[in-house]
Amino acid sequence: MTVTFLLLARLPEDGAAAFDAYEDSVLPLLSEYGGRLERRVRSLDDRTEAHLVSFPGEQEFAAYRADPRRAASAPLLERSGAVVELLPVREITSRNGS
Questions:
Q1: Nearest-angstrom CA–CA distance, 32 and 14
Q2: Whole-angstrom distance, CA of residue 36 vs CA of residue 69
Q3: Could you tell me the pTM of the whole model?
Q4: Neighbour count for residue 95 (Cβ, 10 Å)
């Protein structure tokens, strides 16, 4: 069963460049685990970034998180100073059809 996550990253004023470097190293790994970056947006002030990511199932997500290449990139994330929140989410539809 597909699992979907919303990642929210709060970036300090000077953290965007290091966060971008981290993302450049880990986002290409998604496809190896069937993951898909559905949407990636950043606030106009470069202080908040949101990703909507899906995986075929929990096992693929866990394997992505355990990838040693992702762990090797962790210092970039730490250097960015980002505070990251990962939320499992689900699709909703309006009850009134709009």
A1: 31
A2: 18
A3: 0.88
A4: 6
Among 51, 42, 49, smallest CA distance to 6 is for 51
Per-residue pLDDT reduced to its tens digit, 59-81: 999 999 999 999 999 999 999 99
Helices (H), 12-54: 16-26
4 strand-pairing partners: 54, 89
The span from the CA of 2 to the CA of 90, in Å, is 10
Q: Vertex 51, ends 62 and 26: CA angle to 5°?
A: 55
CA-wise closest residue to 20 among 63, 86, 83, 82: 82
Structure tokens given for 48: 């908040």
